[in-house]
Amino acid sequence: MRAGFIGLGAMGRPMAANLAQAGRLEAVWNRTRARAEAFAAATGVGVATDPGELARRCDALLLCVSADADVLGVVDEAIPHLRPGTLVIDLSTVRPDTARVCDERVRAAGGAFLDAPVSGGVEGARGATLSMMLGGEARDVARARPLLEVLAARIVHLGPAGCGQAAKAVNQAMAAGINQAVSEALAFARALGLPGERVIEAVGGGAAGNWFLTHRGPTMLAGRFDPGFRVALHHKDLEICRDLAAGLGAHLPLVEMTLVHYRRLIDAGAGDLDISALFRHKQALFRG
Length: 288
Fold this sequence. Notes:
By secondary structure, the protein is an alpha/beta fold. 56% of the residues lie in helices and 14% in strands.
């Protein structure tokens, strides 16, 4: 199966590199062509002139872009050039309704669509240890699995189109709570005069242990906030969570609070930092 990849950002580039290393990648396309050409020079794969060319050359298109409008735009560019049975696999994080619209349009053109958002950060993308949440038809999941297994260590099919994105919203709400708890607790530990690294060692082996504490706690304490996962992107994802909850007649207090805190970071010029930069906000609780 010849795969094409669209979107070579922080997550997309290492995923595409894993496909290239596995001999699965035919060509790439990126809105900034220089990024695609640099990737091609490093991996030996081709560069498509547009999503349509990629659709003509490949049996599967994988997308990893930033926002709903980007996904819809790329899919609409590719649709006139899809061959019967072409798989379109969206690895982005967007609204479930966007996934369902893409599914309808791709299927009407004779292709097949999967929404396949991932969790695990840049480290997971590089190491192919991502967790993937899938929406779509079971038969299409089975066809896509040889490609998806190159990218993710855990692949879970949750139901029809849109279910993968709904599960990702749950993931993002949970990640917000974990970030809130870890950043606040480590700021508390520092204010108490405790040695941060040893606190991480002590609590990380107990009930409070978690991935974020292990992977972001040390860099947080060191004042390093290289993404990772950018504040601005998580803010965008939490807006999706807020809107989904509103559609159910509910609100999510933790999500609402995190949106406020992220907005403060974004307004302070920290939108491109890792979400662990929330530690800065938490430290301010203990000043004075």
